[in-house]
Design goal:
Blueprint: E1 5-10, E2 29-33, E3 49-57, E4 65-70, E5 84-85, E6 87-91, E7 94-104, E8 108-116, E9 122-125, E10 131-134, E11 144-148, H1 162-168, H2 173-176, E12 193-200, E13 209-214, E14 228-229, E15 231-234, E16 237-244, E17 252-254, E18 260-262, E19 273-276, E20 288-292, H3 312-321, E21 326-328, H4 371-384, H5 391-414, H6 417-443, H7 459-465, H8 473-499, E22 503-508, H9 517-521, E23 526-527, E24 530-534, E25 544-545, E26 550-551, H10 553-556, H11 562-571, E27 577-580, E28 589-593, E29 603-605, E30 610-611, H12 612-617, H13 623-627, E31 631-632, H14 633-640, H15 644-651, E32 652-656, E33 659-662, H16 669-678, H17 689-700, E34 705-707, E35 714-717, H18 725-728, H19 732-747, H20 751-766, E36 772-775, H21 799-804, H22 807-816, H23 830-842, E37 847-851, H24 852-856, H25 890-895, H26 897-909
Parallel strand pairs: 3-11, 11-19, 20-21, 20-37, 21-22, 22-27, 27-36
Antiparallel strand pairs: 1-13, 2-12, 2-19, 3-7, 4-5, 4-8, 6-7, 8-9, 8-10, 12-16, 13-14, 15-16, 17-18, 23-26, 24-25, 24-28, 28-29, 30-35, 31-33, 32-33, 34-35
Helix pairs in contact: 4-5, 5-8, 6-8, 14-15, 16-17
């Protein structure tokens, strides 16, 4: 009789969600057959050698194969090239990969499956934690143990990430009770099959029972109350043994779609033991909601002009009352590079490890603050309570007060056991950070190339800088002190969030400032003659230039990306989820020369360039004509009018009749900016400097091919090359060839390269911690990047502004999405907001995350401020002042039960989980 088994749970639910993250696997469950004529396994001889037979269903492309690499020599000792190669076997309509290996008694091992090419180069590997194999009890010398696995994708252990395991479902231990035994307590007949069921159930609620039910009598004949009860064995795993008797026909065990294990009890070739690993239990998707707001934007009764880490406790309370499981923040690392408001840009890190002193609550530094300092704090509170953040005033005030308290209690704090533990656990980054801050202030610049003998970092120089015998040692210790208290305050807020079942989600910036601790200490990890950015897109037709140096991935790979792994380890001290800023950068980055000011004339790194031979074969040969700025007299006259002669005289040389090139002192964008500012002739153009700068940039960018500065025979098509007069003046054949090569470069030839590049770096990040990872993917997105739900974010207009700034778009939305032929309101009313927010709550993604501004717009009383003022960032402006503050305190929001109830109703009606 064929036996179909199904796993069900009482008052429990399980899920299988595809996420763009790498997640741990489930332990296998065991299915084995005892064929000993003597019955029970007791009294058997000790085993010597057994054969492991691996079997995995998997479809590959031509030229690809599978292998196993594991922790033991028999499986290659984690050297993939020495792993166990598998061979393809067709069985019915499926393709299986199989391989055997002999192992000794007591064999245990961890292992993973890899897809490789003909040279055993890794193309990809399965997601999740390492698999584990432990031989079943009772195996005998010469036995064959068949291990039937299923390729692990990223979804299988989603709920074992810390965001779920340690936060949302952290009370499920209450349903698991003590560890229980699952040993088999009965004798076996020769032809019995013993099935050991194992299922991961991280989402159980108190009072739940886990059972297996199926058509077999031992499994209750589909009656859950008569099914096989499982026992909790730890790590969210439940197990039970079941003995199935040989009956007519061949039993077929099916667990979920397309997962079968055919066992022929009468076949002499049947393996004595079968280990069946079938992934995770399927069920309806879990869905939750969250709120996003920068720390600096929140307002409380206690802050000094800017949000603080301890304010997050109030924000968590509001999130819980509103039905949210997640609070998302912008980066919180120190950005004190310039010593002015430019440092408000949270993605330009001075250190990827140090926290920003801006978020320190000085009142919490000590229990014995003198009365005069307390009065200073109260006065500062009133003075800094402004509509927007006064970055410089808030930071300088906090540091001034912190120094006064430090001078009073430094010996007490710095000699405490908790501080000494903090220092010992963080000295690898903390000591260089403190030394950097001292040198930055001493030399009055963070440009470490200007620091003389200290411009080159060494551990010997560092030890001298932080030595106790120096006159500035208290300066060094002050930086330790501030970072220690920031750590304590953020840790307190993070622990509070976990207790309230709220995920605290951090942000991992894609870059670091070129004048940072990290580029000083680890210069070989960065390409300092380049800058990162984004190609032209919806936000900016000239692209974006963030100024960060690009990464030297080749150098980073030498220690398996240790710098990245350290960053994630540090973040995991506070966060249980994180956003990967510009995840496209791990596939490819838009790289610009360091002399560029805009983001237009760049290239992707890595990418396959156009070779000189390729261009010649297509009939393109005049490389100077296409790669140098194309400047003709008629172009100058058209762009600058009668003023063209002044432009030509000051910025250009005529190298042949009516043909011009830039002079050496202004042949880059940054040189043009400098010359416009400092030239003795600047009085000629001072009133129209901006338009002249744009015109000169247009001339400089008037190319169709970018020549690689490191390999001159390689070229890259300029973005939007058809917009240039350089292109328009070419012959038709050249235009057609360039159009085709342009499309191929940007949309076809790089896809596999970029996909493989991400596989080298992203898994290392994702496996460096057990945080839940989410990718931010705005911009020009290649097809190899997976498509995420929010009405707006910090880089675009808020929901209100989006509605009010574009009448045509508003009309189209009202007609096609709302389904109304009426005239839409010009103002984004709470009714409009409710409709759009409800759409996002109802959407299928696991997470719906809303900027706080968009949620407050559900009530009229929170929309008195002009909508454009609520936008956090303007991506087109590299010197944007990040200073938005919510105009209502968190304490007031907590008192407003109406808006909390409105939001919670939206959460519950959409079927999303809430605390």
């Amino acid at each position: 009789m064929g036996s179909i088994l199904s796993i069900v749970a009482n008052l429990a639910s399980f899920v299988c969600i595809h996420q763009y993250i790498q997640l741990p696997d489930l332990s296998p469950f065991f299915l084995f057959r005892d064929m000993a004529s003597s019955g029970p396994t007791s009294g058997k001889k000790s085993l010597n050698t057994v054969t492991l037979l691996f079997k995995l269903p998997y479809y590959t492309q031509w030229g690809q194969s599978l292998l196993i690499s594991g922790s033991e020599p028999a499986l290659g000792s984690w050297n993939v090239k020495q792993g166990l190669s598998l061979s393809p076997v067709h069985q019915d309509n499926e393709l299986f990969w199989c391989g055997t290996v002999s192992v000794a008694a007591g064999f245990t091992s961890e292992y993973k499956y890899y897809v490789v090419d003909d040279n055993k180069n890794v193309l990809r590997w399965e997601a999740g934690e390492k698999r584990k194999i432990v031989l079943p009890e009772g195996v005998q010398d010469g036995d064959v143990i068949e291990i039937r696995d299923w390729w692990q994708d990223a979804s299988e252990a989603l709920f074992l990430r810390s965001a779920f395991k340690n936060v949302i479902f952290n009370d499920t231990e209450g349903v698991k009770k003590e560890l229980q035994s699952v040993s088999l307590n009965k004798s076996l007949d020769a032809e019995d099959i013993v099935v050991q069921f194992v299922i991961s159930c991280p989402r159980l609620v108190p009072g739940s029972t886990v059972v297996v039910t199926g058509s077999n009598p031992q499994l209750g004949r589909w009656q859950a109350q008569d099914g096989l009860k499982l026992s909790y064995v730890g790590d969210s795993l439940w197990k039970a043994n079941c003995v199935l008797r040989n009956q007519a026909g061949n039993p077929s065990l099916e667990l979920g779609p397309n997962r079968k294990a055919d066992i022929d009890l009468s076949s002499p070739k049947q393996s004595r033991y079968v280990v069946l690993s079938d992934g995770a239990l399927r069920d309806a998707p879990w869905r939750g909601a969250g709120v996003a707001v920068p720390v600096f934007s929140v307002r409380s009764d206690e802050d000094l002009g800017v949000g603080e880490f301890l304010d997050l406790k109030l924000l968590v309370d509001w999130a819980v009352n509103s039905g949210f499981h997640l609070v998302q923040l912008l980066p919180i690392n120190d950005t004190s590079v310039h010593g002015m408001w430019w440092d408000s840009y949270p993605y330009s890190s001075l250190s990827v490890f140090a926290l920003h002193p801006l978020y320190l609550r000085v009142q919490a530094l000590s229990d014995a603050i003198p009365a005069d300092v307390k009065e200073e704090i109260q006065q500062a509170k009133k003075h800094l309570d402004k509509k927007d953040v006064d970055y410089e005033a808030s930071l300088s005030t906090k540091l001034s007060i912190a120094r006064k308290i430090f001078n009073l209690e430094k010996d007490k704090v710095l000699n405490s056991s908790s501080f000494k533990l903090f220092l010992s656990e963080n000295e690898e980054w903390l000591k260089p950070y403190a030394a950097f801050c001292f040198l930055r202030d001493f030399f009055e610049t963070s440009d470490h190339s200007q620091w003389g003998r200290f411009s080159q970092f060494s551990k010997e120089k560092l030890e001298k800088l932080i030595s106790e015998c120096t006159l500035h040692h208290d300066v060094i210790r002050f930086h330790y002190y501030v970072q220690y208290h920031l750590y304590m305050q953020l840790s307190e807020a993070a622990a509070y969030a976990r207790k309230k079942k709220v995920i605290l989600k951090g942000d991992l910036p894609i870059g670091v400032d070129r004048n940072s601790v990290d580029t000083w200490v680890y210069p070989t990890l960065f390409r300092m003659n380049t800058a990162t950015g984004a190609p032209p897109d919806y936000f900016d037709k000239n692209g974006q230039n963030w100024g960060f140096p690009t990464y030297n991935w080749e150098e980073m790979s030498k220690d398996n990306y240790g710098w990245w792994r350290a960053r994630l380890t540090q973040m995991a001290k506070y966060f249980t989820a994180y956003r990967i800023d510009h995840i496209l950068g791990f596939f490819r980055i838009w790289e610009l020369p360091d002399h560029a000011a805009t983001g237009l004339v760049g290239k992707f790194r890595p990418s396959i360039p156009l070779s000189q031979e390729e261009l010649l074969s297509e009939g393109l040969w005049d490389f100077n004509r296409m790669s140098r700025p194309y400047i003709r007299q008629e172009i100058l006259e058209d762009k600058f009018g009668s003023f063209w002669t002044v432009i030509a005289a000051n910025f250009l040389n005529e190298y042949q009749k009516h043909c011009y090139e830039f002079k050496e002192d202004c042949n880059t964008e940054k040189k043009i900016i400098a010359k416009l500012k400092k030239s003795p002739e600047k009085s000629l153009w001072v009133e129209k400097e901006d338009s002249i700068r744009r015109g000169l940039f247009d001339l400089l960018q008037n190319i169709v091919l970018i020549r690689d500065p490191e390999e001159p025979t390689k070229f890259y098509p300029r973005f939007n090359l058809e917009d240039t007069s350089n292109f328009r003046d070419l012959d038709e054949h050249s235009k057609n060839v360039l159009r085709r090569l342009y499309y191929d470069y940007y949309f076809a030839r790089q896809e596999n390269l970029w996909h493989q590049n991400a596989l080298k770096t992203l898994p290392v990040l994702l496996n460096s911690s057990d945080m839940l990872a989410c990718g931010e993917d705005l911009g020009l997105i290649p097809a190899c990047v997976h498509p995420v739900c929010a009405p707006s974010c910090h880089d675009c207009s808020t929901l209100r502004a989006w509605w009010e700034e574009d009448e045509g778009r508003r009309n189209r939305f009202y007609k096609t999405v709302v389904g109304s032929d009426e005239e839409p309101p010009s103002r984004c009313t709470p009714e409009v907001v409710h409709f759009i927010v409800q759409q996002h709550f109802d959407a299928p993604p696991m997470w719906a995350i809303f900027p706080l501004q968009d949620l407050l717009a559900l009530k009229d009383k929170y929309t008195t401020r002009p909508a454009p003022e609520e936008t956090i960032n303007d991506p087109t402006n590299p010197k944007h002042y990040w200073r938005f503050r919510v105009h209502v305190t968190l304490e007031s929001l907590l008192e407003d039960k109406d808006i909390q109830a409105t939001i919670k109703d939206l959460v519950t009606s959409s079927g999303r989980s809430f605390p």
